[in-house]
Every structure is written in C-alpha cells, then in structure tokens.
Amino acid sequence: MTDIQTKLLVLGAGPAGYTAAIYAARAALEPVLIEGLQPGGQLTITTDVENWPGDTSVLGPDLMVRMADQARHVGVELIADIATAVDLSRRPFAVTLDSGTRYLADTLVIATGAQARWLGLPSETRFRGFGVSACATCDGFFFRGRTVAVVGGGNTAVEEALFLTNFAAKVYLIHRRDTLRADRTNQSRLAANPKIEMIWNAEVIMVAGTDMPLGVTGVDVADTTTGATRHLALDGLFVAIGHVPATALFANALKMDDEGYILTAPDSTATSMPGVFAAGDVRDKIFRQAVTAAGMGCMAALEAERFLAHDGLAEPVNALHAHG
Q1: Is 191 in the same domain as 46?
Q2: Where are the beta strands (DSSP E) in 82-161?
Q3: Looking at residue 302, which CATH number applies to its domain?
Q4: Whole-angstrom Cα distance, residue 16 to residue 105?
Q5: Crossing angle (nearest 10°) for helices 60-73 and 15-26
Q6: How far apart are CA 276 and CA 261, in angstroms?
Q7: How many CB atoms neighbour CB 128 within 10 A?
Q8: Looking at 183, 205, 239, which one is the last position of a domain?
Q9: How far apart are CA 230 and CA 270, in angstroms?
Q10: In this structure, are residues 98 and 82 in contact, taking their beta carbons and an 8 Å threshold?
C-alpha cells in the first residue's frame, strides 16, 4: 500500500469540494481532491442553471468542468478515485482509495454530497433533467404557466408545491397515503392555495413523454387502495421524497443527525472531530443549492487553514464539543 502525505484532503468534486480545494490551494496548502463516483455531483444531471451568480444561463455539467479547470489552474491535484475506508481515530487521518493508495491528511474536508431519493422507475430516469427534477428551487422557473406535479407528503414536498405555484398554472401533489406528514402550518397553506390539487392514495407508476424533443407530457398513477390507474397530463414532475447524504464512511466516527447528515458547530463547518470539516449537502438538508455549497466549501478551507495555523486549537471545534 502506498502512503501519501498531504496537509489537506478534500473528498468530493461538487461545488463545495472544488471551492474548498481552490481556497486551500490559494492558501498554499497544496490540497488533494478525490473526485469520487460522480465528479461534479448532482449538477452533472442538471441541464440549464440560471441561478448561478455571473451566468445568465449555464449547463450544469459545463459549470462543473469550469470549476475543475479552475482547481487545476491554481494547483489542486485531482485524483480520479473513490474513498473506500476512512480512519479518523488519529492524526494524520487515513483515507484509503479503491486503487489501494492511502492518503495521510492533517486536515480533511468532507464534501461528498447527497443524492435525491428517486422513485426508481426507468421512465423517471429517462426524463431526469428533461421534465423530471428533484429541486423546485432550481427548475421551477422553467415551468411558468405550465402544469406540474410534486410527489411526496412531508414538509419538503408541500413547500416545493407551494413554491411552484409562483410559476406553474396548476400543481398536483401526489401522495401515497390519505394524510400528509407535513406540519400543520404547511398543510394550512396548502389547503388555502387554489392552484394545488391533492391526489391522495396514489403512486406514480410511469412517466410519459416525447423523444424529439425529450420532455414530459404526463404521468400514470395507481390508486394504492384499489389499484385503479389514471393518467395526469402535465409538463413536469418534481420528486420530493427525501435525500440521502453520502456519509456512510463516517457513520461511526462523526456526530450525525438521525438522517445521516453530518453535524457541525454553529456558523462553522467544523465537525465533532477536530481537523475534520464538512461542507455542502453532507451537512445541509435545508437549502441544497450550488451557491450555498460553494460558500460552505470556502468556509471549510478557511477553517482548515486556521486549524493548521493554530496546531489543532481552532475555536469552532471546541464550540461543537461545548454544544454537544
């Protein structure tokens, strides 16, 4: 096994990881970034991005290529490999890659992201980015004056349905039960909105659409009590049944919430382990935007640099232990 020493190791090649690496390189930390399974993260399956500052419109994959190019330009070493084991019990932290290489890092930035929980339908996969989305904030604007549906029954689903009424002419909320899990305030707002129609006891069984151009024209739903099916004509489907953070490698080493998101100190990216920082969707289940992930990546790099400069006595780490 080959061991390589580094001052700062970044896991994850999305907006958080690239930004952390760029800031760390500019601070002369000579960072190494492990790209993981999906370099570019969720933006690689996003088409037009119109809320990235400085770009009127940019394709998600193109934005990620530009971030990677900038990281290389400032001296970041990008490694096309996957982390398979992590030992945070002592410093330097040991991260073993699928290739067998092991990195020994004085500090670690975890930016492995999260994945939307999908319905698992082949037809859903076919139209991802072409009418099927997991982010109303990202893609709602494209459905101005159209008919869309949201799948889910929790606060996220209700909030996405309400948000979409700012653009869409009509919004279906499809839920497999006859009651919502969302809190009462959200349910009251939902009931008061004339643009939203509830489809109770129903699950999407197929997404229908066109090939040229690729786009959604409707969904087939099945009644969960009777099995009867019906077709809903619509232009977009938003899946809001949760996200899964990519944090399994750190399950026994870092404090997490009950959904597996890494906990950090207030106003900080410092985790429960001094010298380990978490940025982006691994710790953020509220906003989940490229721009907020990038901001956290910046924070993580600055905190890592400060941690190294103070030889492990960084104040944000102590704050996390103080707050439990």
Answers
A1: no
A2: 83-87, 93-97, 102-110, 114-116, 132-133, 147-151
A3: 3.50.50.60
A4: 18
A5: 20
A6: 14
A7: 18
A8: 239
A9: 49
A10: yes
Are residues 194 and 257 both part of a single domain? Answer: no
Residue type at 45 in one-letter notation: I
Mapping DSSP to helix (H, G, I), strand (E, B) and coil, where does residue 304 land? helix
Look at the block and give the residue holding tokens 């809190």. Answer: 183
138, 235, 281, 298: the catalytic one is 138
Measured in whole angstroms, the distance separating CA 178 from the mean position of its chain's CA atoms is 29
Question: How do residues 120-167 score in pLDDT, each as one tens digit?
Answer: 999 999 999 999 999 898 899 999 999 999 999 998 899 999 999 999
Cα separation of 55 and 143, whole Å?
A: 20
How many domains does one find in the chain? 2
pLDDT value, residue 283:
97
Residues counted in the chain: 324
How far does CA 302 lie from the centroid of its chain?
22
Active-site pick, 106, 139, 281, 284 = 139
For residue 209, give the nearest of 183, 237, 230, 188 by alpha carbon: 237
Range of the domain at 292: 3-115+243-323
| pTM (2 d.p.) | 0.77
Is 298 an annotated catalytic residue? no
Q: What is the pLDDT of residues 5-48, one digit of tens each?
A: 999 999 999 999 999 999 999 999 999 999 998 888 778 766 67
Given 3, 55, 87, 135, the catalytic residue:
135
Q: Are residues 301 and 283 in the same domain?
A: yes
pLDDT score at 257:
96
